[in-house]
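Re: weekly structure request thread

Next one in the queue (694 aa):
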Amino acid sequence: MNMKKFSLIRSMIAFFLFSEILFVIFDFFVVYPFLGLPFNMVLRGMGPAVAIMLSVFVIVGFFIRKFLKPICTLADKTVLGSRLTPEERVSFLKREAFVNRFLMLVNIIGFMVVTPIAIVATMFADGVLRWSTVRFNIVVVAVGPVLGILQKEYFSFIMRKIKEKISLQEFQLLDKPANLRKRSVAMIIAFTLSISLNFTMVILSQNEVLSGVDHIAIKLNPEFKESYTNEYREFYLAAEQSTDPVLKEKAQAFIKKVNAEYPTNNMIFAVLSFGFMAVLWFILGVWIFNLSSHLQGINARLRDIVNLEGDLSHFLVKTTDDDIGELQVLINKLILNLNGMFLSIFKIARSLIDQTRQEQSNVEELMRSNEEIQTLTQEVSKEVGQQVEVSKTTSGFIKDLVNIIEDNILKIRRQSAMIKNTSDSFAAFAMSMNSLTQSADKASDFGKRLTVSAEEGAKSITDMNSAIENIRSSGMSISDITETIYSIADEINIMAMNAAIEAAHAGDFGAGFAVVASEIRSLSENTSSQTTEIAELLNSMTKQIETLVARAKGMSQAMQGIQDAVNSTNKLVREIEQAAVENREKSSSSGDEMRQVMQITDSITQNLEDQAAGNKKLVSSVSTLEGSTVKIDEVGKHQENYFTALSDVFEHIYRYFMSMSDQLEALDDSLGNLKLVDPNMLNHEQHAEVKLKD
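Done, posted below.
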């Protein structure tokens, strides 16, 4: 036989036989003589009863061995490294409950049945029913529940040790658990009844002590001399019937001696009764100690749980089927639920740490992108500022050019009038020719200056076109980066929503993470909103730049027209100058040439008027360009301020993620200090609980 089996079965059978035999010895050979039967008669008459009782005890011991063998087999299976299946766990617990009920029934019902059988056997052996035997039967039946409680508590004690060794925990509550208060009241009643019956039943009258017999035996058969001692009978009769003074004196002396010894006998009885009561209270103390050990085990596990580095890797063993056992099961379910909850929190914390690190990386990328945008925006603002200065210079130059052209138009018109007047007077014509020559010289000089100014204006417009194109290219780059920021903000918003969902799954332990997710989501929405504003500003700036590009092209074409007109004017002025010289040298043939000069003058006037109309458009375009450039400069400054504020926001978000990452790392370290069960074991216990419910 396996050693562990033999140890469990042997210890339980040994305790059962020891407690029952001790009870038989104490009641049959200590209590029974004090119930009125002489000790020598107890030795002669109790043999059959003791034999029957011992036979019953041995038979019950065999049954206990049979009931314990399956329990030992299942326990040995776990010692060898195997785990009990849900069905085997149910079988183990059912057999344990059956043995508990069996021990109580044996001591309650068994004594109620076996003891009368033993008494009947004794009565047939003696031929008489003694009052002491009736009293003894009552005492034995009253002591039976006490023995059952004692054996049940011992069995619960050794079964608790076995459950702890094989790690057998229970997670299923009973539908109708035993009530600890009722159980305690029943035990107190049983103890009180047993003690009271022993005290009341052992009180003997002086006549019974003197005669050595009990009244029932005398009344049933006064001649039955074996029911009392001959010595007591002799002196009892002598005291009642003798007329001999000596004999009477002798009898009285003996009665006096008995009366003197009566207190001593009562003292001995009191000591024995106190010893019996001490045994009963010892049994009660064992039960209380066992109850205290259950509570101490519960307190120890609760201390482990509430510790900062709580130990949730062990469960309690259910030791009783009453309120304490239900409390142990509830604590096991609490430990099981705490394990599941902390495992979920641990997973959520790990996920949040990973997400936080990813968000930190995204924020760092956003900060780098924002710095690039800021640098690019500053460069654009610088170029726009330069373009504003160029626009102002170009605008002033063009306005001066327009004023010069208008003055030329007036002068040429006056010159044309003077040329017309030369046809009436040669002298006037000669003077006009001189004036024309001088005007032609001035016009030639002005034409040269106008040519240089037109070339500088064309170059300025070309530079302005190049700067506008650079602004347009920079605006496109900013638009692309803005799209990237919007996309990243949208991803942050989605991650924040996922984090909020995960925090909701964690319940109260995830409330802090829900606040974090809400703040991240708010920051993401703010970033998206501000990015949208940047996109709108960029779109507006792009439209204005496109308008500027179109108008700059018109200005370029107008300047080209001005250059062409100036070149044509210079050519005509040179022709006028040449014609004037020829007219001055050949005044006799000036009629035809004067008409030619007038035609040329009319052509110049027409060209200058056309140029004046173009100049008005050019002035309008330059004014619009100057206003648009100023607006672009204002947008650039606003955009620069915005990106500076956005950089501060990103810095705040980055510090926030750093703080949250540190807190999550601290939470991860705290959770890492907890001692939890193996997740595989957790799944197994939950599966076993479902099986037990089924």
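The two ends are 35 Å apart (CA to CA). The first strand starts at residue 311 and ends at 312.
Next request, please.
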